[in-house]
């Protein structure tokens, strides 16, 4: 809907190509093309929304002729390319005119994020084909396009992005959520199947060596500024930390980064919270999955399943050869205690039947 604007705005909204050409011939100036309506929308934005390729080409040719910017934004911070996401043909015209493929709105969401969340498969493919695309761009909260696709359950977008060169599969947002954890949180098993094979260790919460070295250098520089006399301590500590973290790096995967949320919950624990054994089984089949990994309050995936009364999930977890039924949380409660406290009798019987130990009976 148009509010205010010029006669050219009205002609574009009505899709009248002949009238647009007539108006442009009588007023061939950049000012006419850059004019805004009350919603800060340009004629190019309205032409994009009409899904009329002849009309869009007419306006784009004038924009290129007068060297007008294609990156003007409306009141929501959207560019013409962002508004064209539902129409890949319009996007192709704008990209050919060199519209910014990495533009974002006022909230930091990029065009690729919008296409992924809205299940616009052709738009995703078109954007990923652009060499100028920064696929790891994130919002102020740390959300990437891959996280957006995983949260929405867009398997087409996840499958297309996961194989892109330079994609950061294990990037985390401000809450510590990765794309894999988001897929598990929202119950998107197909996305889990696509992401999990590209992660070497889905349990580790250590920091990468590069970040540790940078932290050491910053700390050492601060000590050097405070006192030149501490220079010997500076070198000794730096050397110690360097060899320590180098040793850790050689003993673990190069993708050894923090893959838990701010409460220490892994993707497996999130899958258990959803109570779907298919997702749990998918994660348990990934080499290196720690079935006994606990969150900050000490609860493991088995304890969460017992608390929720997920009988089938409990069976799936207990079938894992490394599952420890006797583990307790920070308050000393084993899994069977959680099942009993929440009146899940069948789960209590399952836990005691397969593990009638003294620890489980506490």
Describe this protein's structure.
By secondary structure, the chain is mostly helical. Among the domains are: 1-99, Alpha Horseshoe (Serine Threonine Protein Phosphatase 5, Tetratricopeptide repeat); 209-250; 291-354, Serine Threonine Protein Phosphatase 5, Tetratricopeptide repeat (Alpha Horseshoe), CATH 1.25.40.20. It has 21 helices and no strands. α2 (17-26) packs parallel to α5 (53-65), α5 runs parallel beside α7 and α11 runs parallel beside α13. The chain starts with 6 loop residues before the first helix and ends in an 8-residue tail after the last helix.
Task: Give a summary of the structure in a few sentences.
This protein is mainly α and 362 residues long. The protein contains 21 helices and no strands.
Secondary structure layout plus pairing:
Layout: H1 7-13, H2 17-26, H3 30-34, H4 43-49, H5 53-65, H6 80-83, H7 88-96, H8 111-117, H9 121-128, H10 145-152, H11 155-162, H12 179-185, H13 189-195, H14 209-226, H15 231-250, H16 267-274, H17 277-284, H18 301-308, H19 311-318, H20 335-341, H21 345-354
Helix pairs in contact: 1-2, 1-4, 2-5, 4-5, 5-7, 8-9, 8-10, 9-11, 10-12, 11-13, 12-13, 12-16, 14-15, 16-17, 16-18, 17-19, 18-19, 18-20, 19-21, 20-21
